[in-house]
Q: What sequence folds into this?
């Protein structure tokens, strides 16, 4: 099966890649899985948003992941949407219903569609010759032609769908333009190519028609998604209706009905990781945000800017966030640092290449004990790498980036909910300990959306750390970097009366003036570095780690960041099956909460490290800081996030004693 | 009680070379502050790396000595957050026009209400005299092995074309004149750029004090030197933009003046336009209470740490209903 591609030859990999990947012994409730695919720019996102929202309104839980090329228009993009009656935060491998805007989508994803699943396809494209689709990459074509040869598939899309039919997949061919012409006729519109913009809504209508989902709920979702483009609503509603009734009349054999879940009582939100961070930052008091455009970080800043004027609970007082798009990442990080010195909560957001440019500024912030927050959206690297794809390969860079040794905090959120709470924590920690905080997120979290219980903001507290008042300053000479027990000296903000002090990237004395004296250097290094102990002492364990499963489990999985969702679900399933397993998620990745980790992992029989990078970076750091070795590692670095299915398969492979030390997961289109 | 220049002095030993123009610039700064009546806590000096970078340590006011070339981003971050502060950015010509030239240009686009002064001596002093971006083509100064192979850039012209609304040049040893320019730059509404010719006695043995002041070309008959430096205001030059239509005419005139170098080097104000909106004005257009309640002054929580920001609007937008 695809999930366990271990030291496989290329030939094997190709075979496995195009085999259906659902494990035979996988019993989990995968929910319903819908996928929309088409050329970038053709409205895949909108289709997924309508579908997701319609399900969310209907009381169902959704988790949706967006995949797209680094391209503006034309290359293949898709959205994998999972719908379930229970809360979910990961995808599975399976696709139950594939809504293909174009021929390429069928070619790319046909092997993921389950038996009894369905494919909605434009019947006018059935004669498309697969290997002549211009946007298919050469590597894909060469692998796919082997697959076609092996399975005796002819040259056209129709041939491929015949093959799918033989595998038990329902094919729903529809002439999209015929339906669009009906829309045009009924509204007296011209029949131009513009109508094609509604293919996405047509596929949504067909999907829900096939699924028998209540149409008014879908309309409500559509209207809400199009609320800012109200001129288009009528047209799209009509397209939805026509497609829906076409499907109802013509397709009746699909075995995956989708029903409104009436039981949902709690209030829910449906949002992406970018949005969760943005809302968390604003609630946490961010008032200056700087950024230089980069994927997938920029969405966060744009979301904040769109809401720059804020309401506060104190009457008559209005607040606002100043969002500055700077000339480069260097300016972004240093502008935020400068802002932070005035006492404002300031942050910047970036991705790997941008962070590379920021590390000099990060060192300055470390030297000057600046409470600076950097939200770091990882993506596939090195260099520009996979600019729109997923990766978790920057953990060590976040921890070590910058010249010299200085204290910093690195937090890693594991799901969209944590993205929100950690955004607040990041500012609190930055000010409590006066140091830069790097909030690590990744593309899989940034661009996925999920239904969640509305955030519990009652528990949130803002801690501004130790600040001197002007009254205290009037009593005598103030030392910004005064030596003390915790390493955290009371702050004065630039502009406070009586608080004049200096900052410099040079080594400095307690006043902030340059000093190259050896004793001062020793004391000042110790002052700064001892903050790391203060951090470990003062941050509660619940904010450092999460543990899932029975205490003292024999087998412990350790991981960080976005694989959390897939691991939690897979582990839950394995525990149900009677396996003795637990999952330790490290949220504070630096300084490493050694005590908590040793307590949980110290006596485990087997430790399984799961990460989305080549070398198992967290596993290495744990080994370095605790001496605990992991016995197995399960890694993935193909640019696509881990699914529940493949984590389940790979971990089970370990638990039944068959796995090699290292498994490399490869699933994903 | 009126402030004296000594009130802006720190106890830190001034470790610039003897004879360095920076001493004069420091004096001009301190006198300007005292005459402006600004209290030390109202002013923030932001510097980069190099000899000029140390200036904040010698001035008793808030001082932020930052990274090579990054003066302007830090300074803008400070000013945006707390517009009540008087922010004066200081850098060298290598700092501002080499590594930092991207920031130099882009700061002009924003027209933030602050001052940026460049100590312009044509060389990288602290790294022992390499050619800087303003050193003219073909010059061989003391510590470079061969003649300068690059064209020297003209900071006045770059400032004019980038959106700076106050563009001036001073000369370190015309200290009183320089002090007046600093005062006008501080009082200017918008981003003020001040290029300060500052002879480096250690490494630039071409553009020396004697050269600027014409001591090297005394009239053989009278023994009177013919200074290369002259003051724009003494020629009747008018830099001020008084209505929108005048803007480009004045920029062109300033560009013309900026081309002069060699036998006649103008100092004074090249261009001044207070009609252009500052960055604060622009933010204020979007966030109306910005100046009254700027980011650094906003309360974000109550006494118990409970956030006071209402995020219901955000939540409403992402509500699953």
A:
């Amino acid at each position: 099966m695809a999930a366990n591609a271990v030291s496989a030859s290329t030939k094997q990999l190709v075979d496995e890649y195009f085999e259906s990947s659902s494990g035979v012994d996988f019993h989990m409730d995968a929910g319903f899985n819908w996928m929309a695919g088409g050329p970038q720019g053709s409205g895949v996102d909108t289709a997924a948003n309508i579908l997701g929202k319609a399900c969310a309104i209907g009381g169902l839980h959704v988790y949706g992941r967006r995949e797209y090329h680094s391209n503006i228009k034309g290359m293949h993009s898709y959205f994998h949407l999972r719908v379930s009656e229970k809360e979910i935060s990961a995808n599975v491998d399976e696709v139950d219903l594939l809504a293909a805007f174009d021929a390429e989508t069928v070619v790319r994803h046909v092997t993921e569609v389950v038996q009894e699943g369905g494919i909605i396809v434009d019947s006018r494209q059935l004669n498309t010759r697969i290997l002549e689709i211009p946007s298919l990459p050469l590597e894909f074509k060469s692998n796919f032609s082997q697959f076609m040869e092996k399975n005796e598939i002819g040259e056209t899309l129709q041939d491929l769908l015949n093959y799918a039919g033989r595998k038990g997949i329902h094919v729903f061919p529809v002439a999209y333009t015929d339906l669009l012409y009906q829309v045009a006729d009924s509204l007296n519109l011209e029949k131009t190519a513009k109508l094609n913009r509604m293919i996405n809504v047509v596929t949504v209508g067909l999907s829900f028609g096939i699924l028998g989902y209540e149409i008014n709920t879908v309309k409500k979702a559509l209207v809400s998604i199009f609320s800012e483009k109200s001129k288009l609503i009528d047209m799209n509603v009509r397209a939805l209706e026509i497609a829906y009734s076409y499907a109802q009349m013509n397709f009746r054999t699909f075995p995956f009905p989708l029903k409104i879940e009436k039981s949902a009582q709690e209030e829910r939100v449906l949002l992406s990781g970018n949005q969760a961070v943005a809302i968390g930052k604003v609630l946490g008091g961010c008032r200056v945000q700087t950024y230089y455009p980069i994927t997938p970080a920029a969405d966060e800043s744009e979301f904040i800017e769109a809401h720059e004027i804020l309401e506060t609970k104190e009457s008559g007082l209005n607040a606002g966030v100043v969002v500055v798009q700077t000339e480069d990442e260097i300016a972004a990080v240093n502008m935020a640092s400068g802002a932070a010195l005035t006492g404002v909560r300031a942050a910047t957001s970036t991705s790997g290449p941008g962070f590379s440019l920021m590390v000099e500024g990060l060192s300055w912030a470390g030297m000057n004990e600046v409470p600076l927050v950097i939200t770091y959206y990882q993506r596939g690297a090195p260099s520009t790498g996979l600019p729109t794809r997923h990766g978790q390969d920057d953990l060590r860079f976040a921890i070590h980036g910058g010249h010299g040794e200085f204290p910093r905090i690195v937090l890693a959120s594991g799901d969209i909910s944590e993205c929100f709470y950690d955004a607040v924590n990041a500012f609190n920690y930055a000010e409590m300990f006066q140091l830069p905080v790097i909030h690590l997120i990744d593309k899989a979290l940034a661009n996925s959306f999920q239904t969640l219980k509305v955030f519990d903001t009652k528990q949130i507290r803002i801690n501004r750390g130790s600040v001197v008042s002007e009254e205290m300053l009037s009593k005598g000479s103030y030392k910004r970097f005064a030596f003390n027990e915790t390493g955290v000296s009371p702050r004065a903000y630039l502009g406070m009366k009586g608080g004049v002090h200096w900052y410099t990237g040079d080594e400095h004395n307690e006043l902030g003036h340059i000093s190259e004296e050896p004793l001062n250097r020793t004391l000042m290094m110790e002052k700064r570095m001892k903050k790391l102990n203060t951090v470990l002492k003062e941050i509660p364990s619940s904010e450092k780690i999460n543990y899932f499963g029975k205490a003292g489990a024999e087998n412990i999985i350790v991981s960080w960041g976005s694989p959390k969702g897939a691991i939690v679900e897979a582990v839950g399933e394995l525990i149900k099956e009677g396996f003795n397993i637990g999952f330790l998620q490290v949220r504070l990745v630096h300084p490493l909460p050694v005590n908590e980790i040793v307590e949980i992992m110290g006596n485990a029989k087997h430790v399984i490290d799961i990460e989305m990078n080549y070398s198992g970076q967290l596993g290495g750091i744990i080994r370095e800081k605790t001496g605990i070795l992991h016995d197995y590692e399960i890694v993935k670095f193909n640019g696509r996030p881990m699914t529940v299915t493949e984590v389940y398969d790979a971990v089970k492979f370990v638990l039944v004693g068959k796995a090699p030390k290292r498994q490399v997961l490869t699933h994903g289109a | 009680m009126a402030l004296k220049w000594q009130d802006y002095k720190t106890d830190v030993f001034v470790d610039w070379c003897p004879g360095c123009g920076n001493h004069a610039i420091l004096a001009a700064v301190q006198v300007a502050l005292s005459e402006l009546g600004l209290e030390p806590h109202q002013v923030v000096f932001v510097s980069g790396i190099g000899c000029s970078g140390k200036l904040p340590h010698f001035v008793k006011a808030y001082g932020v000595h930052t990274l090579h070339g990054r003066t302007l981003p830090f300074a803008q971050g400070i000013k945006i957050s707390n517009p009540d502060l008087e922010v004066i950015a200081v850098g060298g010509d290598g700092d501002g026009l080499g590594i930092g030239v991207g920031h130099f240009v882009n700061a002009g686009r924003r027209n933030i209400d602050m001052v940026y002064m460049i100590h312009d001596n044509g060389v990288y002093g602290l790294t022992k005299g390499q050619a800087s971006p303003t050193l003219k083509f073909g010059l061989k100064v003391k510590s470079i092995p061969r003649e300068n192979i690059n064209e020297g850039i003209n900071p006045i012209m770059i400032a004019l074309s980038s959106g700076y609304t106050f563009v001036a040049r001073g000369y370190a040893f015309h200290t009183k004149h320089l002090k007046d320019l600093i005062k006008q730059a501080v009082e200017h509404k918008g981003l003020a750029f001040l290029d300060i010719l500052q002879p480096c006695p250690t490494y630039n043995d071409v553009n020396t004090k004697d050269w600027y002041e014409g001591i090297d070309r005394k009239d053989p008959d009278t023994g009177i030197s013919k200074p290369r430096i002259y003051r724009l205001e003494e020629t009747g030059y008018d830099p001020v933009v008084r209505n929108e239509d005048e803007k480009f005419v004045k920029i062109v005139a300033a560009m013309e003046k900026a081309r002069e170098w060699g036998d006649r080097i103008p100092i004074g104000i090249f261009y001044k336009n207070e009609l252009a909106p500052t960055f604060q004005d622009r933010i204020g257009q979007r966030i109306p209470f910005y100046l009254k309640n700027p980011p650094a002054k906003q309360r974000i929580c109550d006494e118990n740490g409970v956030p006071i920001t209402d995020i219901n609007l955000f939540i409403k937008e992402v509500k699953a209903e």
About this structure: The CA atoms of residues 85 and 276 of chain B lie 21 Å apart.
